[in-house]
Design goal:
The structure holds 3 protein chains of 3 kinds.
Chain A: E1 4-13, E2 16-26, E3 31-35, H1 42-50, E4 57-62, E5 65-66, E6 77-80, H2 92-102, H3 107-121, H4 136-148, E7 154-158, H5 166-183, E8 187-191, H6 194-200, E9 203-208, E10 211-216, H7 218-223, H8 228-233, E11 240-249, E12 252-257, E13 261-264, E14 275-280, E15 286-287, E16 295-304, E17 309-315, E18 318-324, E19 335-339, E20 346-349, E21 352-353
Parallel strand pairs in A: 3-8, 3-9, 6-7, 7-8
Antiparallel strand pairs in A: 1-2, 1-4, 4-5, 9-10, 11-12, 11-14, 12-13, 14-20, 15-19, 16-17, 16-19, 17-18, 20-21
Helix pairs in contact in A: 2-3, 2-4, 3-4
Chain B: H1 3-37, H2 41-46, H3 61-69, H4 72-103, H5 109-118, H6 124-138, H7 144-168, H8 172-181, H9 185-196, H10 198-214, H11 217-222, H12 231-241, H13 246-266, H14 268-279
Helix pairs in contact in B: 1-13, 3-13, 4-7, 4-10, 7-10, 7-14, 8-9, 10-13, 10-14, 12-13
Chain C: H1 4-42, H2 64-71, H3 75-104, H4 111-118, H5 120-123, H6 126-136, H7 143-151, E1 165-171, E2 174-179, H8 180-205, H9 210-218, H10 223-251, H11 255-261, H12 270-280, H13 284-312
Antiparallel strand pairs in C: 1-2
Helix pairs in contact in C: 1-13, 2-13, 3-8, 3-10, 6-11, 8-10, 10-13, 12-13
The chains are: A alpha+beta, B mainly alpha, C mainly alpha.
């Protein structure tokens, strides 16, 4: 297994810069998730690391050594494609063994490795079939098997779960995590699904528009988002955001919003009188006031999602979403008093966290 | 019966009549070709109006004569040689070129992919005289191999275009997978692209075979010695030397026609796809 | 900045070069080069006798060849014949192809067989079909004339491919003079190439969405109206394109006419004239010039066609 380093990777298509000066380091054996909306360039980055597409500027290093001059097959990297790209004219066994055959591994060794990998993924009975005879989930396993059997230095996975139906997705996700713990491979995983990112990654890289917004552990990215985009991208339902002003009064800093004000811990004095945004996640909103002045909201509607209730309320003219238990007696029209615990509040100035 | 019913009945009648008309129009010449080839010379001369075939008097002599007394056995082998060689070369070169134009990035790529088709628009007659001049000067005129090259030049543009559109529809991830698994580009072509392009390759092969097998003008202009004649050239030679023995010319015609028609019948779907794809330019 | 990416692209370009070289060489040598050679030769006084000499390469341009071609007394009639043949043959083949496609569209037993059968005039070798039709229409030995005379339809055998004019009585004392050989050749052209139009129109017909017809039926349109208002407009672009392609290929046709009539009896088109100059009179220069003239005529048509069509469609 190898470590992966990207230095200043830039890529342009036509006149548009799809990737702008990206820097990233993934330690040996880590599971790194590239998270971002569609079109943010994450798949392009993957093809650049694989060597299928050349970058315009910057360098890719494996184990500290640049691999830019190497063809894909010499980089010892394996990739799992979004639509699996299994060779339709070969059986599953041939698909799995193809990479080894190209590297002139002995036939007996190929057979052994193929069978071992098939056992690991639970597809041993499928070895003689052709891809078109397999279900989506089975095809996906074969695609992963094709990467695993080569025992490469680095795994690249391009949204491998996106073509599976929801139930299959969560079980495969767990299996992926288990596989990673077993094999301890270095993985670069691309997805737009935040749940995958949170559950699978040791390290999450949030990307948008060809630029990295934050690199951190899943917990950190969720609890301490570096900017407004990261804060709203992660978390469902979305974080509540309110525009307002930081004001110093009586020696304390207050957030003055349209419908409420909140006393904050002492913050940077240079931000006095600045326009900021205050954010709080729905699950962090405390129902019931213990201190005054309380923040008043009126419930617009509630949705019972089975495990909890999402309450959509109006805070003045602005919206507030909060979560509460299914046994709540909040109904449309009922007033509710809420509190924003200070350790759960996020302040964003010019989009960045402060 | 309202107007709609009347019209629909009328349409159906028209349709049956029309189909019969076209079927007869298309089939009759071939019917006549076969039937006449099985008649004797006397029948041809004395009973020209006889539409049917007297089964007791079927005479296969025409075929025997044409094959062995007029050199058609040799012509057949020449045609087979030329056509098969053209097909093999055309398919190989068009595959390589088609792949290059589709997947590889190089300067002049757009020029190649469309220029190759513009070239196809030039009439054979504009090519014949200069080629005749050049070949005569170089002493290359009476050569079957040169003929193969000429046919190659005629069929390559369309073949390349046909394969190009097919390659464009192959998912590129398959090739990426191959590249990552350790194939070189050429390896990808050989192990992945070609096996998956079988239907398109078959279409190209059939189309090229048809062109090479049926070709007349260049064979007529460039081949001088009878031993080298292809079938098309041979039929004309035969017709010029026998004036009344139409049954011989018909037998020869049957021999030229049957292989291509049979091939076509077997692979109809491929050929139709090939023809429509090939000529559906831009 | 690393040099990795540029060697990547350079390698690709190099591979592309080698993959394209054979194709480009063959096509350049046997198509591009001859075309340029043709232009060259058309501007030089060249005869068959000059073939071996070095005079081929001397730069002594002259317009004499063109003068001879354009000043040839036959020139105008050849040009007219060419245009008549081309327009008539292309038009007929497209119309017949349209008719055949309409007949075959929709399912009925034996459909794929019929479809296969209809393609045979196009697939069969040109020598076979021309000799067969010559035989069928032969004045002495052909079945059409034999039956025609026998049944009284013909007063005398008609030499379809070797008679220039035919006086047809239309009844009521009116007689019309048609160019027999030319007409026969045009009819042959329609027969031989209608499958090409048939294929494409059929493919287009099958892609017209069924709901369109249903909606029209509901709106009260009968079968003929449906054809006129729905089918025909959808086919318009295919028909125009088909006519264009057939025009280009027909104007360049040599084989068919040569084999049927050798260009006699009023069927001399430009391609035949090229052959006559170069191999009949051994006037290579004139032959090439005539080929160039043909090319120019084609180009003029293409320009006119695109201008007119772009306005229409």
């Amino acid at each position: 297994m190898a470590s992966l380093t990207l230095k200043g990777i830039t890529k342009r298509f036509g006149g548009v810069e799809v990737l702008s000066g990206l820097d990233l380091h993934v330690e040996d054996g880590r599971f790194c998730v590239l998270l971002g909306p569609s079109g943010c360039g994450k798949s392009t980055l993957l093809t650049i690391v694989a060597g299928l597409v050349p970058q315009d500027e910057g360098s890719v290093l494996l184990d500290g050594r640049p691999v830019d001059r190497l063809a894909p097959r010499d980089r010892d990297v394996a990739m799992v494609f979004q639509n699996y790209a299994l060779y339709p004219h070969m059986t599953v066994a041939e698909n799995l063994g193809f990479g080894l055959r190209m590297r002139r591994v002995a036939k007996s060794a190929i057979r052994e490795r193929v069978e071992e990998t098939a056992r690991l993924l639970g597809i041993s009975e499928l070895l003689g079939r052709k891809p078109r005879e397999l279900s989506g989930g089975q095809q996906q396993r074969v695609a992963m098997g094709r990467a695993l059997v080569r025992r490469p230095r680095l795994f690249l996975l391009d949204e491998p779960l996106s073509n599976l139906d929801a139930r299959l997705r969560s079980s495969v996700r767990l299996e992926l995590k288990r596989l990673h713990q077993q094999t301890r491979g270095t993985i670069l995983y691309v997805t737009h699904d935040q749940v995958e990112a949170m559950t699978l990654g040791d390290q999450v890289v949030v990307m948008r528009g060809g630029v990295i917004h934050q690199i951190d552990t899943p917990e950190a990215v969720y609890a301490r988002p570096a900017d407004r985009f990261v804060a709203t991208f992660l978390g469902s339902p979305e974080m509540n955001l309110y525009r307002g002003r930081l004001v110093r009064r009586q020696g304390r800093t207050f957030f003055e919003g349209a419908a409420f004000s909140l006393a904050l811990h002492d913050l940077r004095p240079d931000l006095a009188d600045e326009e900021v945004e205050l954010g709080i996640r729905p699950e962090d909103v405390a129902v019931g006031a213990e201190k005054s002045p309380a923040i008043r909201a009126v419930v617009e509607m509630t949705s019972n999602v089975g495990s909890e209730t999402h309450v959509h309320a109006l805070l003045g003219q602005e919206r507030l979403t909060l979560k509460t238990s299914v046994h709540t007696d909040l109904r449309a029209g009922s007033p509710v008093l809420v509190d924003f615990p200070l350790d759960r509040v996020h302040i964003f100035h010019n989009g960045k966290r402060v | 019966m309202n107007r709609e019913d009347l019209e629909t009945a009328g349409v159906r009648l028209l349709r049956v009549g029309g189909l019969v008309f076209f079927t007869v129009l298309v089939a009759f010449p071939f019917y006549w070709m076969i039937v006449s080839s099985l008649k004797s010379l006397e029948e041809i001369l004395l009973q020209p109006a006889n539409l049917g075939l007297d089964f007791r008097r079927i005479d296969g002599r025409a075929y025997y004569e044409v094959l062995f007394e007029h050199g058609f056995a040799g012509y057949i082998s020449n045609s087979v040689y030329v056509s098969v060689a053209t097909v093999i070369l055309a398919v190989s070169l068009a595959t390589l070129g088609g792949y290059a134009v589709t997947r590889l990035r190089f300067r002049g790529r757009t020029v190649m992919s469309y220029g190759i088709l513009v070239v196809y628009m030039f009439p054979a007659i504009v090519l014949v005289v200069p080629l005749y001049v050049v070949f005569s000067r170089m002493g290359l005129r009476d050569s079957i191999h040169v003929l193969i090259l000429v046919y190659l030049a005629q069929t390559l543009p369309v073949a390349l275009y046909m394969l190009r559109s097919y390659f464009q529809n192959l998912p590129v991830e398959l090739e990426y997978a191959g590249l990552m698994d350790g194939c070189s580009r050429v390896g990808v072509i050989w192990r992945i692209v070609i096996p998956l392009s079988a239907p398109a390759l078959a279409s190209v092969a059939l189309y090229t075979f048809m062109i090479a097998w049926n070709e007349f003008l260049f064979a007529f202009m460039f081949l001088d010695t009878p031993e080298k004649f292809t079938l098309s050239r041979g039929v004309v030679q035969l017709a010029e030397s026998v004036h009344l023995s139409k049954q011989l010319v018909m037998a020869a015609s049957v021999m030229v026609t049957v292989p291509i028609l049979v091939l076509f019948l077997f692979f109809e779907r491929q050929l139709v796809r090939g023809l429509t794809a090939g000529a559906m330019k831009g | 900045m690393t040099r990795g990416p540029s060697t990547f692209l350079a390698k690709e370009a190099r591979l592309a070069f080698w993959l394209m070289v054979p194709t480009v060489t063959v096509v350049a040598a046997f198509v591009v080069f001859p075309v340029l050679w043709n232009l060259w030769l058309s501007l030089k006084p060249v005869t068959l006798g000059d073939l071996r000499g070095a005079s081929l390469f001397r730069w002594n341009p002259t317009l004499d060849n063109f003068r001879r071609v354009l000043g040839d007394p036959e020139f105008l009639s050849v040009l007219t014949t060419t245009l008549l043949y081309t327009v008539g043959g292309s038009g007929l083949s497209v119309v017949l192809g349209l008719a055949a496609a309409l007949l075959v569209h929709g399912s009925f037993p034996g459909r794929s067989l019929v479809r296969g059968l209809f393609l045979s005039p196009y697939i069969a070798p040109v020598v076979a079909v021309t000799f067969t039709w010559s035989f069928i229409l032969d004045p002495q030995l052909g079945v059409v004339n034999a039956l025609g005379v026998q049944s009284g339809v013909f007063t005398q055998p008609m030499a379809f491919f070797s008679q220039r004019w035919l006086d047809l009585p239309l009844g009521g004392g009116v007689r019309v003079r048609i160019p027999l050989a030319l007409t026969s050749v045009i009819l042959f052209e329609g027969w031989r190439y209608f499958p090409f139009a048939f294929l494409f129109v059929l493919a287009r017909l099958q892609s017209i969405p069924e709901p369109l017809y249903r909606a029209a039926s509901v709106d009260g349109a009968g079968p003929f109206q449906r054809f006129y208002h729905i089918t025909l407009p959808q086919l318009a672009s295919v028909l125009y394109t088909l006519f264009l392609f057939r025009f280009i290929w027909t104007i360049n046709k040599f084989d068919d006419i040569f084999l049927l009539t050798r260009g006699q009896a009023g069927t001399k088109v430009m391609t035949i004239k090229v052959y006559e100059y170069a191999f009949g009179r051994f006037d290579i220069g004139a032959g090439c010039a005539a080929a160039m003239v043909l090319f120019v005529v084609l180009s003029l048509f293409l320009i006119a066609y695109f201008r007119w069509i772009v306005k229409e469609v």
